[in-house]
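Each letter names a residue; the fold follows as tokens. Both lines appear below:
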Amino acid sequence: MDRRNTGPDAAVSVRAADPRAEPARVPPVRPEGPARRWVCCADDYAIDAGAIDGIAELIGRGRVTATSALVDAPLWRSAAGALPLGTGAAIGLHLNLTQSFARREAAVWPIGELIVRCRLGAVSRLGIRDSIERQLDAFEDAMGRPPDYVDGHQHVHQFAVVREELVAALVQRYARALPWLRSTRPPPAVRDRKARFIAALGDGALRRLAAAAGVRTSDYLVGVYGFDADAPAYGRRLRQWAQSGPEGTVLMCHPSRRAQQGDAIAAARGVEYQVLGAADFADALSAAGILLSSGTGLFAAGR
């Protein structure tokens, strides 16, 4: 059964929460000129029940317009059924090579080790390709269709060896309707060291490889920080990113209603869920002239 969400792609609207639950406020003044289309992408869908509930809620409210699924997570199949339909949100594969899950015997590596191995070519291409194919199969088995896009848990999709095998797999499997790939390139105005370090791990090479194969990539990525912000500080970061990100920017986030014990970014997940669900987030986007999109039309092949 095809579980593709339906609805307009170019403008997945940002709907305010129930006005009975929020104080009255003065609507923000939207700048003149055409809106900038962004994608608000929630990573780690299915990692735990809190992420499933929180992301599904934010999709239903129009605050999140794409989510990347960890299909290795034990909750993935039930999580696929919890996705709200009719929202137009994009559903993608969050390629995982670094996090182990119970009852999953797939090969994974600590992120630092994987970076070094990929740089040196000291990782099995066959093993990486098998992992990619297995995760694409798991996505299709649960969703009844290919992913709208692919990105990577801890951005592994851009690493050497991984990117070559990923692009080859996508072209072989989905030549008639290629998923897009998420770039990690920060906008020119973003000078954050962590953001630039992540992009330096392979973004330029991924974009060149994808372009040669006819696979579209997103344009820019914001949302990188140290996972150390409280709600006011994260809100300030969102407003700064909103001012700096051009058309085609993806806002990466990791919201959860209740993160599992032992999660290294548990506090950040709760903060992001709180802030993304608040009226101030919708107001900040409107004030910056940003219209949220699923990205499926925005990053369509041949655009």
